[in-house]
Backbone:
């Protein structure tokens, strides 16, 4: 179901209070981060925020470039918390976006100790016509029309089509920190191993790509993430 509060807000507080530095979650193609609430049960008590794309109410304001999208997310993170450390998380299209936001924050002098990538696409999405994107969304997310309504599905389709077009602009820069990679059986972490100078920890989970954003998979990812945070805390004592 949709979360309490404004489900289309650019910043979605999945858990606004807690101990530890917050986890900021970047969206998949749909621009929505409701489903990341599946992390909360096993992650432990730290704050978790979902970042969502503009335009989900059909109000326009869609970014014209990947740099604009990334700069907008970085600005929202710093508005909520002016200085790091920040931990970033992204599933699917959200994985390269989280990487780009992490490097942008580091270029601004901020600390991003951990980047979590969950089943990133082997190939970045291509430009897709709106009717084809709508078909893909209704196929991958049964019940999305009932959940969002016709205007909502139209807006999400436009956001997803925009994101697919912008994905071609992704050119990864160096990320200074640790990377936690959680992928399905078909997912290959190799391209990511050269993108983080703090080491890459890889886990293979028994879930297909679409299932990876569902509650059972996210509960497993949350457990792995909680263990990672405990290990980082022990090391930094």
Residues:
């Amino acid at each position: 179901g949709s979360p309490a509060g404004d489900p289309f807000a650019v910043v979605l507080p999945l858990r606004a209070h807690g101990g530890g530095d917050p986890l900021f979650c970047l969206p998949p193609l749909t621009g929505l981060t409701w489903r990341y609430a599946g992390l909360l049960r096993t992650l432990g008590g730290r704050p978790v925020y979902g970042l969502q794309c503009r335009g989900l109410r059909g109000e326009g304001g869609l970014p014209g470039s990947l740099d604009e999208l990334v700069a907008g997310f970085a600005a929202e993170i710093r508005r909520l918390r002016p200085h790091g450390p920040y931990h970033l998380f992204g599933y699917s299209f959200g994985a390269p976006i989280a990487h780009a936001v992490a490097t942008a924050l580091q270029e601004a002098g901020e600390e991003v100790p951990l980047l979590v990538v969950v089943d990133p696409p082997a190939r970045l999405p291509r430009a897709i016509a709106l009717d084809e994107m709508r078909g893909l969304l209704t196929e991958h997310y049964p019940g999305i029309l009932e959940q969002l309504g016709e205007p909502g599905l139209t807006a999400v389709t436009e956001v997803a089509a925009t994101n697919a077009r912008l994905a071609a602009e992704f050119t990864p820069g160096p990320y200074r920190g640790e990377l936690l990679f959680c992928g399905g059986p078909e997912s290959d972490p190799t391209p990511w191993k050269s993108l983080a100078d703090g080491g890459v920890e890889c886990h293979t989970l028994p879930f297909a790509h679409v299932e990876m954003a569902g509650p059972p998979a996210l509960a497993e990812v949350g457990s792995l993430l909680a263990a990672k945070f405990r290990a980082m805390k022990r090391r930094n004592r």
Q: What stands out?
A: The longest helix spans residues 144-166. The first strand starts at residue 11 and ends at 15.
